[in-house]
Design a protein that fits this description.
The protein has 316 residues and is α/β, with parallel strands linked by helices. It is 47% helix and 15% strand. The strands form 3 sheets. It has a 5-stranded parallel beta sheet. The protein is globular. The model has no long low-confidence stretch (mean pLDDT 85).
């Protein structure tokens, strides 16, 4: 590929990603930063956890993302009686064939919306681990590949609400990002009140990208350059989480790789082919705060503690 062709492809991808964010913003009003994080998470190949109060648009955002990306969508309402087989599928004996046949569950989609994931029991939550990490599921000793691309977009209500189970650390670690939408501002809320029903608006949307183009965007993310000083900075941040000064336990190497992927995606969305420290700082709270527990007596939540740590770690 010539330099001119490469520049043309990069320009086309930049226009697609910009159009994707603009189309999502027609449904999710007044939340450009959260939309940017969502798109960065998906083109980085990560799974997304949206935590907030009921009714602020978590499910609408997940459905909008799937439609705008032209992906096959499946929604599962997680409840306390949901079983792993309800999610993954089940092998059923077919008398005519004289054998067991696998009937795939709703996880066999390109976007799985795990709605209110923390209302299901730990056993069902854990059933997602293999799917999220390896894009496959194992049922009755047989392994079944999931379609690509494959994303889990999970929503959860605040843990203090009735009927919720805290997500285990191993589950939280599979999510590249955790974001919160929050209440809309006054102008955005007025637009919501005066506009059409969001379900009708979503039906009118057309895909901005195809699944193949999304896979190409993910490949472009992997090509974004991270210079040695930037990697030094990332390692300094990882070391700070493990120092015992800020958090009970530090970040794993897998988390460090996730941070780098997210920073590369953020750089690509900013139409750059290299990662800057600003990219790293911009994605760090939503990428690592859900994996960390502040030390007792810190007097701050995990996100605030992450921001304090960023201020303390010198820039390269």
């Amino acid at each position: 590929m010539t330099q001119t062709e490469a520049a043309s492809q990069a320009g086309h991808l930049a226009r697609q990603l910009d159009a994707l964010q603009r189309q999502i913003s027609t449904i999710i009003k007044g939340k450009p930063a959260q939309i940017l994080d969502c798109v960065a998470c998906l083109i980085a190949g990560g799974h997304l956890l949206i935590e907030d109060l009921p009714g602020v648009g978590k499910t609408t955002l997940a459905h909008t993302l799937s439609v705008c990306l032209g992906l096959r969508f499946s929604r599962v309402q997680f409840t306390s009686d949901l079983m792993p087989s309800d999610l993954l599928g089940v092998s059923v004996y077919e008398r005519e064939q004289g054998r067991f046949a696998f009937h795939p569950g709703p996880v066999f989609a390109q976007v799985l919306l795990a709605d209110e994931i923390n209302r299901a029991g730990p056993k069902t939550q854990s059933a997602l681990l293999e799917a999220m990490e390896e894009q496959q599921v194992s049922v009755d000793g047989q392994t079944h590949a999931l379609p690509l691309p494959f994303f889990v977009i999970a929503t959860q209500n605040p843990s203090e609400q009735l009927g919720t189970y805290p997500l285990p650390e191993s589950q939280l670690d599979r999510f590249l990002m955790r974001i919160s939408l929050g209440y809309p501002d006054e102008r955005a809320e007025r637009e919501l009140l005066m506009g059409e029903d969001s379900r009708d608006a979503i039906k009118a949307l057309r895909p901005v990208m195809t699944p193949a183009e999304l896979l190409a965007a993910q490949a472009a993310v992997r090509r974004v350059h991270a210079a040695p000083p930037l990697l030094d900075y990332l390692q300094a941040l990882l070391a700070a989480t493990r120092s015992g000064q800020w958090f009970i336990d530090g970040l794993s190497p897998r988390a460090g790789l996730g941070v780098l992927r997210a920073a590369r995606a953020r750089a690509l969305l900013d139409q750059r082919d290299y990662v800057s420290p600003d990219d790293m700082q911009a994605i760090l709270p939503q990428t690592i705060a859900h994996r960390l527990r502040p030390k007792a007596g810190a007097g701050r939540g995990a996100r605030e503690q992450v921001r304090a740590m960023i201020e303390a770690v010198p820039l390269p």
